[in-house]
Amino acid sequence: MNFISANDKKTTFTYTNCHQELSADKVQAAMDSISQLKLISANGVLQYETPESANYIETIVTDIL
Length: 65
Description:
The chain has 65 residues and is α+β, with helices and mostly antiparallel strands. The chain is built from 1 helix and 5 strands; from the N terminus they run ββαβββ.
């Protein structure tokens, strides 16, 4: 999940073992909840202030040896 911080920089909230069939509405609701909590800051700057986007990232490992 990608957010904009309070100082207008991109921040990422990564969850490794998420369900891969979540609807856009459920993800949007989760991101809205995270931003409304205003719990996580670094050096006094809220990190997850504005939800921006979300995506799944898949890693494929191919053994070569």
